Amino acid sequence: MKITCITVFQVDLPLEHPYWLSGGRLKFEVLDATLVKVETDAGITGWGQGTPWGHTYVPAHGPGIRAGIATMAPFIMGLDPRRVLVVERAMDLALPGHLYAKSPIDMACWDIAGQAAGMPIADLIGGGSRTPRPIASSVGANTVEETREVMERYRARGYGAHSVKIGGDVVREISRIRDVESIRREGEIVLYDVNRGWTRQQALRVMSATEDFNVMFEQPCETFDDIAAIAGKHAAPVSVDETLVTLQDAARIARDGLAEVFGIKLNRVGGLTKAARMRDIALAHGIDMFVMATGGSVLADTEALHLAATIPDANCHAVWACQDMLTVDIAGGRGPRNIKGHLHLPEEPGLGVHPDEEALGDPVAVYS
Ligand code: MG
Asked: How does the average pLDDT of the chain come out, rounded?
């Protein structure tokens, strides 16, 4: 089987509510999504998606995905997409780094490989759990009142897991955490996501003041050095996502004991192939996981769900459904959707969901 054509689409995905990153920084209202259709001489077509969470969040640029694909396309044309490691190596040689640009191609190759094998991707890569995965909300809010309001909105949709964005003024954030803990329900998962917003001192002040709740903080500071510097000075479990980009990052976190949880974002780390290696490092070191897209439609959510399904149930905390934050649906209601706060693995071969091509507009590039 050979890749014969790569068609690239750009779609704006408006958010239902404007979103502020932790601490009220970096407001965004629309996501720049790249959809990739990979065709083969066997008549099997695979789809991939790459959608940074805005341009200002971490080094990942919506138009950069399209530029990266333009550079890599000549090197992957004619390769067998089922040999995902060969395609991965060709992309890494053609364009070192720029992992987020490679993720949609990797995803489309897995989609094709699954369809060719007649198996869902999760089963193809070793076995997918059918235990529905809890969906974590993304609570971008500032005040105590807004935080309650957004959490209630998600609870009304069945959500029992929440990623509450903090990382602003220390005194205000301590009161927000105390308030959320006061309304937290039995069994509800709450992660406090700092999005790198605090200095070492600020992180320690909040972590000490909330020690009695034993709550988990995600990415409390900017760098690994910051997280390492405060590691022995607080008792809170830590999740790392924004600085978990390469396999070397995963190895360092495991070796130095920097986090109890990996937040694996598939688009950020370069796709399913590279993310699966991070999963194995995590499992080998007693590290649990959240698995998510960095943003995007039901396609991106579904890719993350396939990886999540290959993690033992006990080690996979939650996934994310960015689709629930959008005003547009490029797949007409198909694919895994929020059912009582959970996503269910699709049984169709491959990814299990494709977009409505008419919903994507004209392609922005075609490589053949
Ligand atoms: Mg995070």
From this structure: 96
Q: Ligand 1: distance of its center to the CA of 185 in Å? A: 22
Neighbours of ion ligand 1 (CB under 5 A): 193, 218, 241
What is the Å distance from ligand 1's center to 241 Cα? 6
Separation between Cα atoms, residue 173 and residue 206, nearest integer Å: 8
Ligand 1 centre to CA of 90 (Å) is 30
Domain boundaries, the chain: 3-118, 124-343
Topology agreement, domain 3-118 and domain 124-343 = no
Catalytic annotation present for 165: yes
Instruction: Mark whether 265 is an active-site residue.
Output: yes
Please write the tens of the pLDDT for every residue from 85-110: 999 999 999 999 999 999 999 999 99
pLDDT in tens, 310-323: 999 999 999 999 99
DSSP state letters, 239-300: EE-TT--SHHHHHHHHHHT--SEEEEEHHHHTSHHHHHHHHHHHHHTT-EEEEE-SS-SHHH
User: pLDDT digits over 200-257, tens only?
Assistant: 999 999 999 999 999 999 999 999 999 999 999 999 999 999 999 999 999 999 999 9
User: Per the residue annotation, which of 37, 102, 265, 274 is the catalytic one?
Assistant: 265
What is the CATH class of 124-343?
alpha beta
CA of residue 217 to ligand 1 center, whole Å? 9
Is the domain spanning 3-118 CATH 3.30.390.10? The answer is yes
Determine the 3-state secondary structure of 51 from DSSP.
Answer: coil
> What was the pLDDT predicted at 130?
98
Asked if 344 and 132 touch (Cβ cutoff 8 Å), the reply is: yes
- What is the enclosing helix (H) or strand (E) of 165? strand 161-165
Which of these is catalytic: 165, 233, 274, 340? 165
